[in-house]
Amino acid sequence: MRGEALKRQVLVLVDREFHMPEDIAKVDNKWLVDWKTEYDVITTLEKLGHEIRIMGGLTELGALRECLAEWKPQIVFNLLEEFFGENFYVPYLLGYFELIRQPFTGCNPSSLLLTSNKPLMKQILAFHRIPMPHFKAFPQGKKIRPSRELSYPLIVKSTTEHGSEGIAQASIVTSDETLKERVEFIHNRLRTDAMAEQYIEGREFYVGVLGNQRLQTLPVWEIRFGNLPEGTKPIATSKIKWDPEYREKLGIETGAAKDLPPGVEDRLCNICKRVCRILGFCGYSRMDFRLTPDGKVYLIEANPNPDLGRHEDYAESAQATGIPYEDLIERVLALGLQYQAGR
Fold it and tell me: Which pTM does this prediction carry?
């Protein structure tokens, strides 16, 4: 699998200017939080023998077009969270790659564009009877009118942001007044539309999916919320996701789910594959679920292109099913090439 014939020219796209450290042991924790995934992917690609170029902080297409025309990479490894400072521009860049038949890793542009509009995505999934919490969207510039079809508590989110952006304990609201306050926070701080959905009490699971047409689900992973302060809700806030010292302090861990009720694992995996086919996902993705105490399963999020860091949930669940990190990165490359070839 890793022989000379499979060494490729790989252009890695990252959000900002990126410079590899001479010694990762000497970099501070903030750098690791910001760049660990890029570091893991790039060093692994180099270890596998691929020829790498890195481009970050793109503010115009000229330099990218020039690199593609002159260097002719076999594939672009897409690690972009945003383009021109906005996440919803990334699908348009991938659409350009499709037009010029430039292979790239991860999700295709049409599916990625769909998931950048969470209310629309949820409406489509609801039509196909995917079990999800009820929700209501609150567009910017319109009066905030609570829905009488939703009962408190609710959780308020951005309709476009991912990675727990804007999620905090204050996101859980229990009255019309706190709902209005949190929706206004999303509008003003993140400058996006907001949505409120029914808060689902229960265990939280992550299930990774790998593949284009033939889909492989990875082992069910669970976040264990450890020793949260009294009165706080077990939700994956931005601080929990991005502050390793805070996670360690509270004993928050993720790992293989244990003691699942009979049939739940099969149900989760079946829903994952259905969602991927309904939304047209390819490459790699991850679904987030809640399991209520009475055994009901709810899809919370559908995530194309989840974090590929070596010690993140997706890679660790792949490792648990017998896919070492180096093989995972090779499979992500191969799926990108197969998808484009299929087009």
Answer: 0.92
